[in-house]
Amino acid sequence: LGLAYATDWNNTMLTDYTNAYRDLLDNDPSTKSYMDLFAPNVNEDDIDKTWLQNVLRSRRNYFRRNRDLCIIGMVGVYLLAMVDAYVLAEPFRHIARLVDGRGSVADSGRAQHPPVGGNDLGPQLLSAIKNVFRLV
Hints:
The longest helix is centred in the middle third of the chain and has 52 residues, at 49-100. The protein is built from 4 helices and no strands. The chain has 136 residues and is mostly helical.
C-alpha cells in the first residue's frame, strides 16, 4: 500500500513538473504553470530562465525515476508473495495427495501406511505429515 501511495505521489509530482517544463519552453505568455511552483510574491522577471529550466528538468527526471522504482518495487513484492505462497502450499499438496490415497511409493519415495479405520483420517493424516517432513 505504501508503494502504491508513493507511485501515485511521484506520478502527480512528475505531471506537475512536466507541465511546468513544457510551459517554460513553449514561449507562450498565456501558459505559466511553472509560476505555480513559486510563492505568490515572486516576480517572473526575477527568475533566471536557464536556471529554472535546469531545475525543472532535473526534478522531472527525479520524480520519473522514483515513480518507476516504486512500480518495480510493487512488481517485486507481488512476485515475492507468489513465490512465498507457492513454497508454503507445496507441503500441503503432498499431504493432500498422500491422504487421498493417490500417493504411491513413486510419488513420495516412502511406503504408504494403510488406513487404520474406515473413514478415520486422523492416523492417516499424521502419517502423511510425517512423510512430507521426511521428504523436505
